[in-house]
């Protein structure tokens, strides 16, 4: 499979980039839904060189483990959120999913002006954080981790926040919360390929499942007009919302204008012959369609 072959090549390419000997830059961004008091959803975390280097080392170790899993256990497979085997690593080409491309483009640049200023409320709302590693050759490795990867010790009233400084051999006061990054990775992007280690986080963070169902609703409108479904439309819409694989087929068929090619008389004849009703008849109609869904922009 060309996609999987390219994925293995990408993992080896990442390892080569890490071992090139050049210094790797590191930038971290927290995503937290906006509120009336805080309109910004992205916050850049300022770090000194030592902290940044430790994050790079952590990422290098995590990527080495992921590559070992992919190589030793042969767990890479084309991503399908309804048909992924347990412990597999899903692979998705960004060019095949416009929604993911748009979502990735929303991650801020390294010069993002909104800096995290120690506001505990931002950390309490955080949904995920992003680590972008910048290699000397200009390429980027973008790592995503859900909020459970953040361990936050928030400042408490009348409590003294302090940490031990090895340089000064003493406890020093900390102005603001203490943040620990666990170093794990839920999914990452490299040179147009996304590797998905944790499906639940990927679906939750990107809202891709929700968007697929939404796009299938547009397809249902087209089907309703095509087959004059009338009052059956809403019942079918609810049923499809429970079945993501069917929703993906509908979204893909609508995206590629294939619904207009379905012959209503032939569909009715097939349904009668096979004694199919409702959603099963629709699945039979679009079952032979072999297309990849190309989704629109994600909505946060």
Distinctive features:
2 domains; globular; alpha+beta; 12 strands; single chain; 300 residues; two-stranded antiparallel ribbon; disordered C terminus; 8-stranded mixed beta sheet
Mean pLDDT: 81
Low-confidence stretches: 287-300
Label the structural class. alpha+beta
The first-to-last residue Cα distance is 33 Å
Number of domains: 2
Question: Which percent bin holds the helix content?
Answer: 40-55%
Write the element-wise H/E pattern from the N-terminal end onward. HEEHEEHHEEEEEEEEHHHHHH
| CA gyration radius, whole angstroms | 24 Å
Q: Largest beta sheet: what is the strand line-up? A: 2-1-5-6-11-12-4-3
Question: What is the number of helices?
Answer: 10
Q: Tell me what portion of residues adopts beta-strand conformation.
A: 15-25%
Notes on the protein architecture:
The protein is α+β, with helices and mostly antiparallel strands and 300 residues long. It has 2 domains: 2-206, no CATH class; 210-286, no CATH class. The chain is 42% helix and 19% strand. The protein has helices at 2-18, 49-73, 98-105, 120-125, 199-206, 208-227, 232-241, 244-255, 264-274, 278-286, and strands at residues 25-31, 42-45, 76-78, 89-93, 128-134, 140-146, 150-153, 162-165, 170-173, 178-181, 187-190, 193-196. The strands form 3 sheets. Strands 2-1-5-6-11-12-4-3 form an 8-stranded mixed sheet. Strands 7-10 form a two-stranded antiparallel ribbon. Strands 8-9 form a two-stranded antiparallel sheet. Helix 1 runs antiparallel to helix 2 and helix 6 packs across helix 8.
């Amino acid at each position: 499979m060309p996609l999987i072959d390219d994925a293995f090549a990408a993992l080896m390419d990442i390892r080569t980039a890490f071992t090139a000997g050049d210094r790797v830059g590191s930038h971290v961004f927290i995503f937290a839904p906006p509120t009336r008091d805080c309109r910004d959803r992205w916050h850049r975390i300022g770090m000194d060189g030592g902290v940044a280097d430790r994050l790079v080392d952590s990422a290098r170790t995590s990527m080495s483990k992921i590559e070992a899993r992919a190589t030793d256990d042969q767990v890479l497979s084309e991503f399908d959120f309804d048909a992924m085997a347990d412990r597999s690593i899903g692979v998705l080409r960004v060019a095949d999913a416009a929604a993911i491309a748009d979502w990735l483009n929303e991650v801020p640049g390294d010069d993002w002006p909104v800096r995290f200023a120690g506001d505990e409320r931002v950390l309490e709302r955080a949904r995920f954080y992003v680590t972008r590693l910048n290699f000397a050759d200009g390429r980027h490795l973008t790592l995503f981790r859900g909020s459970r990867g953040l361990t936050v010790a928030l400042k408490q009233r009348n409590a003294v926040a302090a940490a031990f400084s090895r340089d000064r051999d003493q406890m020093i006061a900390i102005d603001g919360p203490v943040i620990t990054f666990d170093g794990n990775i839920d999914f990452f992007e490299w040179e147009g390929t996304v590797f998905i280690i944790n499906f639940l986080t990927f679906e939750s963070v990107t809202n891709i499942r929700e968007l697929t169902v939404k796009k299938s609703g547009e397809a249902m409108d087209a089907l309703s007009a095509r087959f004059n479904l009338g009052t059956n439309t809403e019942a079918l819409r609810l049923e499809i919302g429970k079945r993501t694989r069917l929703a993906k087929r509908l979204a893909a068929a609508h995206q590629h204008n294939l619904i207009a090619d379905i012959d209503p008389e032939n569909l009715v004849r097939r349904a009668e012959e096979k004694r199919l009703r409702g959603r099963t008849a629709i699945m039979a109609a679009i079952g032979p369609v072999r297309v990849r869904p190309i989704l629109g922009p994600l909505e946060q």
